[in-house]
Amino acid sequence: RREPLALINLKKKNEETGEEELASRLNHCKAKATRHIFLIRHSQYNLDGRADKDRTLTPLGREQAELTGHRLASLGLKFDQIIYSSMTRATETTEIISKHLPDNTDLLREGAPIEPDPPVSHWKPEAVQYYEDGARIEAAFRNFIHRADAKQEEDSYEIFVCHANVIRYIVCRALQFPPEGWLRMSLNNGSITHLVIRPNGRVALRTLGDTGFMPPDKITRT
Questions:
Q1: DSSP-assigned states of every residue in 125-182
Q2: CA atoms of 12 and 84, how far apart (whole Å)
Q3: Closest CA to 116 of 181, 168, 65
Q4: Structural domain boundaries in the chain
Q5: How far apart are CA 116 and CA 181, in angstroms?
Q6: Where is the signal peptide (predicted)?
Q7: With 80 as the cut, is the pLDDT of residue 169 above it?
Q8: How much of the chain, in percent, has pLDDT values that exceed 90?
C-alpha cells in the first residue's frame, strides 16, 4: 500500500483547470531513499528455561553477540535504529550489540508464522498457534518491511534483533516466495540477514544467515 498511485486522492482536482495534476502529485509521493534492513537472530540461549525470563543467553551466546556486534560495527555504517523482540534472549543479544536502544516490540516475538510445506515431524504446533502467531508475525512484516517514506531523503540502515522463524517468514514474504516454505531455511545463532528495499519497492537479499565472521567453534543453530 505504498505505491504512489495508492497514496493520492484521484478525485481531488485542480480548482483552476479542473484537471488532475497527476504527474506532479505522483512524484511527490515517490520514495527517494533505500532502506537497508539487518535482521539479526538472537544468540544461543538456555533451552532448559521454563519461562521466557529463564531462557537467558549462554556464555557462548554472549560471545556470539559480541562477535555480531563487532561485525556490524566493522561495516562502518551509521545505523538509524535498533528494534528488538521483547523476549529475553533477543533483549540480551541487543544489549550486547548496542548500549543505545531506541525501541522494542512484541510483534517480533518468536512463534509459528504459517504451517510449513512440506511438514516436519519434529515440530508440530497446535493449529491455534498458527492463527495467533501468524497474524502477529504478518503484522510485523507489514509494519516494518516496506519502502522508505516519501519524506525520507537519505538511505537508512536499521537493525532488527528477533528470531529464526520470524526472519525466515519475513524473507519469504519480502521476496514474494511462497511463505509456506519458510522452514526450508536454516539460520545460525547471531547471524545477519540483510534485505535491501529500493525506492521502487523492489527487494534484494544481500545475505541470509551470515556467520562467516564467527570462528567455526562458535557457530550454533539451537
A1: --HHHHHHHHHHHHHHHHHHSSPPPTT--S-EEEEEEE-HHHHHHHHHHHTT--GGGG
A2: 41
A3: 181
A4: 1-30, 33-218
A5: 6
A6: none
A7: yes
A8: 72
Question: Per the structure block, which three cell numbers stand in for 195?
Answer: 534485505
- Prediction pTM value: 0.89
Distance CA 211, CA 171 (A): 17
Cell of 15: 480548482
Q: Is 183 exposed, middle or buried (0-12, 13-18, 19+ CB in 10 A)?
A: buried
69-86 residue pLDDT tens: 999 999 989 899 999 999
Within 10 angstroms of residue 52's Cβ, the number of other Cβ atoms is 14
Alpha carbon distance 150, 87 (integer Å): 32
pLDDT bracket for residue 165 (50, 70, 90)? very high
pLDDT at residue 199 tops 70: yes
- Supply the angle between the helices 88-97 and 59-74 in degrees, to the nearest 10: 50
C-alpha cell at 121: 515431524
Q: Say if residue 167's pLDDT is above 80.
A: yes
Q: What is the dihedral of CA 202, 208, 213, 216, to 10 degrees?
A: -170
Q: What is the DSSP letter of 33?
A: S
- Asked if pLDDT for residue 92 goes beyond 80, the answer is yes
d(CA 70, CA 73): 5
d(CA 52, CA 64): 20
